[in-house]
Design a protein that fits this description.
By secondary structure, this protein is mainly β. Helices cover about 10% and strands about 45% of the residues. The protein has helices at about 1-10, 110-115; strands at about 25-30, 35-45, 50-60, 65-75, 85, 90-95, 105, 120-125. The longest helix is centred in the N-terminal third of the chain and has 9 residues, at about 1-10.
Length: about 130
């Protein structure tokens, strides 16, 4: 009887886990303002066209629900694999894949949400 159960268990077809989008999700990032926390949320708009929307959020350090500022922009993946995003007032972001699911984010111009600088290593915190 035990052999029959083992045989059944080994004959089930294996299903591959869905491949995770290399950019989509929420990422925490250090910001240069005391008393706040910052994160980026990257949302696919069109996978076929490799387009994304990015929302940069600044919230109270102790209460993430107390959002102080949120700015969004859109862009696409370039041929070199960089996600290039244009945000309001001409601010641009360059987002590159890092190791272990993290990203590297560079702000070309400073000043998001009243001059907050939030770039560098961005740690994946969830989908």
């Amino acid at each position: 009887m035990v052999l029959g159960v083992m045989a059944l268990g080994t004959s089930l077809p294996a299903t591959a886990a869905p491949k995770r989008d290399p950019f989509a999700g929420q990422y925490s990032v250090a910001c240069d303002r005391k008393g706040v926390q910052c994160w980026y949320e990257i949302i696919p708009i069109s996978k076929a066209k490799r387009q994304y929307r990015v929302v940069f959020t600044v919230a109270d350090r102790m209460n993430a629900a107390a959002v102080l500022c949120a700015v969004s922009g859109a862009g696409e993946i370039r041929d070199d694999g960089t996600l290039f995003i244009i945000q309001p007032a001409g601010h641009s972001l360059y987002i590159r894949r890092g190791t272990g699911g993290d990203l590297s984010i560079e702000q070309a111009r400073l000043g998001l949400c009243g001059g907050i600088h939030a770039s560098g290593s961005a740690n994946f915190i969830g989908d």
